[in-house]
Structures are given as structure tokens and as C-alpha cells.
Amino acid sequence: MATVEVLVATAEREVYRGEADFLAAPGAAGELGIMPKHTPLLSALAAGELRIHRGEEIDEVFISGGFIEVQPDMITVLADTAERASDVDEAAAIEAQRKAQEIVDTQQGDVDYARAASELSIATAKLAFMRKRKK
Predict the structure, then answer these.
(1) Would you tell me which of 33, 41, 84, 95 could form a disulfide with 70, CB atoms 3.0–4.6 Å apart?
(2) Which fold has domain 4-85?
(3) Contact (CB, 8 A) for 94 and 127
């Protein structure tokens, strides 16, 4: 079966590198499904889960947004932040969601509302990712 090279990285580090026969990504306009020899594509990504399939094995990576570049033999994900599923801390995600929700709810004049709303969206997506993995 044909495979494609996958690289998931942030500005600080490489999170994942390997071969895949399918990748599912949270595109800004909806989920993207990418197989080897896919037509070239550049897209913004939303907060959510990358699913990297290698036969029966699936690696999951949570990203908080970023960009994906697809070439026929290479998929590059440049994420704002990225964590392998095994590294996601649920307690920290719950606390981040609580703090962001508190800031959004109070809407004080000098608080950057858009940033707080973005952080709330990311924390909510991370918790949904964690809850899905527990099932």
C-alpha cells in the first residue's frame, strides 16, 4: 500500500514524523481527509485532532490551529501548538477552559476579548478530544 511522509511541527519542536496511509485533519472549513498522492493543497487548520493512520495503527495529535501543506508524497502540518494524545493533561485543560470562560464572561475593557475567546475555543476542543479518547 502507498504511504506518504507526515511531519507535524511547531515553532519549538518536531512533534511527529513518520509514514501514513491516511491523515484526517481539522480544516478551517471542515475535516480534511488526505491519502498518498493527494493533489497539492494549502489550508488553515482549526483546533482539534489530527488522526494519522498507519494500517491498523492510529496516532492522535491535538493541535490548536495552524496550517497544512499537502504534496503528493509529503504532508507538513505547522501547528501553533501540538501535543500527542498521551501528553495531553486533562486537569490543565479544564483549568484553562475555566479561566478563559471567566475572562469571556467578565469582558472587562482592558482584556483582549478575542484572545480569551480563542483560548476558550482551544480549551474546549482539547477537552472534547480527551473525552472522545476516554470512550
Answers:
(1) 41
(2) ATP Synthase; domain 1 (2.60.15)
(3) yes
Is 0.85 topped by the overall pTM?
Answer: no
pLDDT digit string (tens) for 36-75?
999 999 999 999 999 999 999 999 999 989 999 999 999 9
DSSP 55: T
Q: Which CATH number fits domain 88-134: 1.20.5, 1.25.40, 3.30.70, 3.30.450?
A: 1.20.5
In 3D space, the residue among 123, 125, 101 whose CA is nearest the CA of residue 113 turns out to be: 101
C-alpha cell at 104: 469571556
* Phi, then psi, of 24 in degrees rounded to 5: -115, 130
In whole angstroms, what separates CA 131 from the centre of its chain?
A: 15
Percentages helix, strand, coil for the chain (3-state, rounded to 5) are 30, 45, 25
